[in-house]
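Subject: design request, 552 residues
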């Protein structure tokens, strides 16, 4: 019976009229699907766990928060129509829209998504304090859980009014709330899916989860009830669907892109830049007809972390500041960017703060330049003249940085500094750095919210991993005092000076080796329109369209 039906169906398909074929083809062409690849994979769709770019990108399509950023990084309204901040800076009152609905999902009666209320934000924010795999709690250290608030820092006054109380003014708090951690989710989804919620996204965003074949394909479809509209009053998004693949090999993914099966390739590490870009960092003319290049400033610093915890890294030469400084002076960052990144990015010759922030000033914060004489002097000062007596240090990386690491290894070898490269799987690498198991490791930091404090939080002593993001376990009293002072400072000029002093401390103490300040690189299919770029490299697909090209 099954064979008969299959043959009959095929005969019907092949005997349809030309007009029916054209109609079917036209209907298919009208569906706008955006395809992109996520080579590093996605392990969760829970916004509480959105702590890296792949997870932030997917959560940005599925969820919304109180506020959001535009491409100029201004804080705009989202589910909150507007807000008020008390004069003392400790009370934030948000007034919500009344036309925002959760995605239709089996967790709701009859599968119909209900309206979002202030209670949902109270539930979602309280959940961040207890979610085991989330680091969002470290961002909420200033909330007021005292008698003043009846031990309730998050309060829903009514369906449309949500209040957050802080212990003291926190100048970057509104920016922090733009992060995907602070998205709204319904309590029904947690009750229904329990521990498997991370596989069943239920949000309010422009797209809804349709299918997730983990490690193979993830498909989102348009949310027909999405609340945002364009300037002409058309409901967003324009796309009908988003399809994400998980091809690990960059050469294979690039071939898929050239064959039109992907609409975007993102990141200098995701392409063969020697093939695709010329020596000035622009698109090779051989690819001009196949795609267009998006390139822009990126608030991201690539660096090497050095574990400076005496308890965790006993007897290591990395505990000696002169040796850490010697490692920094041994690197020619200009060569690294020019020859191994085809000019993409800027050598990190200032501090840890990347170009694009207001405190970035190479005349004030002077970083490291290649200086062989300083290397030799500092090695002698550290007790290792000409590298004598140095034990082998293991430098942990992932596959993407193999060429860069080999160059760095050769630079250190010139001064008899023995460095061994160990290539790790991304998941193993992430886990090990969180458990401070590596003494030397390649990392990068991408801005989460628009303030330098976000970068400096990596070195605040209260943020040691695994509780926070201080991977190096750097601890410095002067740095901590300046960090805390900056959080209380409202005056922008004064705060910039504080940040520059903090950056100078990092350069002098050298718990890290800054390598380069990155640039955003995207190759995009010519049929894609409306794909915007911003210094956070936040993927925003709600305004994207795909325009069919006429047959030649």
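Subject: RE: design request

Done. Sequence follows.
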């Amino acid at each position: 019976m099954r064979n008969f039906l299959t043959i009959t169906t095929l005969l019907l398909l092949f005997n349809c009229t030309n007009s029916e074929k054209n109609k079917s083809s036209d209907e298919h062409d009208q569906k706008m699907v955006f395809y992109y690849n996520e080579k590093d994979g996605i392990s969760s769709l829970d916004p509480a766990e959105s702590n890296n770019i792949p997870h932030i990108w997917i959560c940005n399509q599925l969820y919304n928060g109180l506020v959001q950023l535009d491409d100029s990084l201004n804080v705009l309204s989202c589910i909150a129509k507007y807000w008020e901040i008390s004069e003392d800076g400790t009370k934030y009152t948000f007034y919500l829209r009344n036309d925002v609905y959760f995605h239709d999902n089996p967790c709701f009666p009859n599968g119909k998504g209900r309206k979002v209320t202030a209670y949902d934000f109270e539930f979602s924010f309280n959940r961040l304090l207890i979610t085991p795999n989330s680091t969002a709690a470290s961002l909420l250290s200033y909330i007021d859980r005292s008698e003043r608030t009846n031990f309730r820092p998050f309060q829903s006054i009514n369906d449309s009014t949500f209040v957050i109380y802080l212990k003291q003014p926190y100048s970057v708090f509104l920016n922090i709330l733009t992060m995907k951690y602070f998205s709204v989710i319904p309590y029904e989804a947690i009750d229904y899916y329990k521990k498997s919620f991370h596989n069943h996204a239920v949000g309010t965003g422009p797209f809804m989860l349709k299918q997730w074949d983990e490690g193979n394909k993830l498909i989102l479809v348009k949310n027909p009830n999405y609340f945002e509209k364009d300037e002409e009053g058309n409901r967003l998004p324009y796309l009908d669907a988003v399809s994400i693949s998980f091809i690990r090999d960059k050469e294979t993914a690039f071939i898929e892109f050239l064959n039109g099966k992907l609409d975007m390739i993102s990141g200098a590490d995701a392409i063969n830049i020697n093939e695709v870009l010329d020596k000035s960092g622009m698109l090779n003319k051989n690819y001009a007809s196949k795609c267009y290049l998006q390139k822009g400033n990126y608030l991201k610093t690539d660096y090497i972390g050095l574990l400076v915890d005496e308890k965790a890294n006993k007897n290591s030469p990395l505990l000696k500041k002169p040796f850490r400084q010697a490692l920094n002076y041994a690197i020619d960052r200009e060569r690294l960017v020019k020859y191994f990144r085809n000019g993409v990015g800027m050598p990190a010759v200032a501090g840890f703060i990347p170009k694009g922030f207001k405190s970035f000033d190479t005349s004030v914060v002077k970083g490291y330049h290649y200086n062989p004489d300083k290397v030799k002097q500092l090695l002698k000062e550290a007790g290792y003249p000409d590298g004598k007596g140095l034990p082998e240090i293991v430098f942990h990386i992932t596959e993407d940085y193999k060429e860069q690491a080999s160059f760095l290894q050769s630079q250190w070898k010139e001064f008899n500094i023995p460095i061994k490269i160990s290539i790790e799987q991304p998941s193993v690498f992430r886990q090990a750095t969180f458990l401070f198991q590596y003494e030397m490791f390649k990392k990068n930091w991408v801005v989460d919210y628009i303030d330098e404090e976000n970068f400096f939080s990596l070195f605040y002593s209260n943020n040691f991993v695994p509780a926070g993001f201080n991977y190096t376990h750097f601890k410095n009293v002067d740095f901590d005092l300046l960090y805390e002072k900056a959080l209380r400072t409202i005056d922008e000029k004064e705060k910039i000076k504080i940040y520059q002093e903090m950056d100078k401390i990092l350069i002098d103490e050298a718990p890290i080796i800054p390598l380069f300040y990155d640039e955003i690189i995207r190759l995009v299919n010519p049929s894609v329109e409306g794909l915007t770029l911003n210094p956070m490299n936040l993927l925003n697909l709600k305004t994207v369209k795909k325009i069919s090209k006429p047959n030649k």
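The two ends are 44 Å apart (CA to CA).
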